[in-house]
Design brief:
With about 220 residues, the protein is mainly α. It has 9 helices and no strands. The protein has one domain. Helix content is about 75%, strand content about 0%.
C-alpha cells in the first residue's frame, strides 16, 4: 500500500470510528495489524484498492464486535478471530467482482461467477498457512518498531547490523567506533527487549473492551 493510500485509509477509519472511545488504542491497533491484513489480502489475489477496503472493513467489524469478545484460549484465540473476519472481508471483495444480478442471465457471466468462486475457495484453503506466516512476520516487525523507539539509535544500529545484516562483531565495532565487548552487550540487551515485546504482543488483544466483556465470541457472518 502506498503512503497516500495508507493515509487515506487511516483518515477514513478515523471518520468511521469517530464515535468509539479510546481513539489512541484504535490507532495502535491499526498500526499493529494493518500491514498483516493488507498483505494477506494482496497475496490472496486482491488488488491494492480491494486490499485497502479489506483493511478498513476488517477494522470496522472488529470495532463493532470486540465488546462481545471474551479472550479465552479455550474458546478461540484473538488471532483466529481476526483471521476469520479478514477471511470474510476478502471473500466480500471477490463477490463484488461478480456482475450485478441483472447481468447474470448470460452464460458467460455464470462462468465468470463460478471462476471467481473457485478462486475464492482456493485462496481460502491456503489462507490459514498464509495467515500464520504473515502473523509471525508482522509480530516480529511490530516488536522491532517498538524496541527501536525504546533504545538509543546507536544501540539499535548495532543490533541491526549484527542480527539483520549479520556483520561480525569486529566489523561492527570498527564501523561504529565501539568495542567488540560493547557490541555483544548491546546485542544481548536489545535481543532481550525484543523478546519481551514479542511476548507482550502475543498477549495483547487490543481495545480493553474485550478483557472486560464476558460474552461468547460472536459469529460475525
Amino acid at each position: 500500500m502506498r503512503i497516500t493510500g495508507l493515509l487515506a485509509t487511516r483518515r477514513s477509519l478515523v471518520d468511521r470510528l469517530g464515535h468509539w472511545e479510546d481513539q489512541a488504542r484504535w490507532q495502535e491497533f491499526f498500526e499493529t495489524y494493518w500491514k498483516l491484513i493488507y498483505s494477506v489480502a494482496r497475496k490472496s489475489g486482491l488488488n491494492d484498492a480491494e486490499a485497502q477496503d479489506v483493511v478498513q472493513e476488517t477494522v470496522i467489524t472488529v470495532a463493532k464486535k470486540i465488546h462481545k469478545l471474551r479472550y479465552d484460549p479455550a474458546v478461540g484465540s484473538f488471532k483466529g478471530w481476526l483471521l476469520n473476519i479478514t477471511r470474510w472481508r476478502i471473500a466480500d471483495q471477490f463477490r463484488k467482482r461478480v456482475p450485478s444480478q441483472n447481468q447474470m442471465a448470460h452464460s458467460s457471466d455464470d462462468r465468470s461467477t463460478a471462476t471467481i468462486e473457485r478462486i475464492a475457495d482456493s485462496n481460502a484453503e491456503n489462507l490459514d498457512q498464509l495467515w500464520e506466516q504473515e502473523w509471525q512476520q508482522n509480530l516480529l516487525a511490530t516488536a522491532m518498531t517498538r524496541v527501536k523507539k525504546k533504545v538509543a539509535p546507536k544501540h539499535f544500529q548495532i543490533f541491526d547490523c549484527s542480527v539483520r545484516k549479520e556483520w561480525p562483531a569486529q566489523k561492527i565495532a570498527a564501523a561504529l567506533g565501539v568495542s567488540v565487548g560493547q557490541v555483544y552487550l548491546v546485542r544481548h540487551r536489545v535481543a532481550a527487549l525484543l523478546k519481551k515485546e514479542v511476548k507482550k504482543l502475543q498477549k495483547e488483544v487490543i481495545p480493553s473492551e474485550a478483557k472486560r466483556s464476558r460474552g461468547i465470541p460472536p459469529k460475525l457472518r
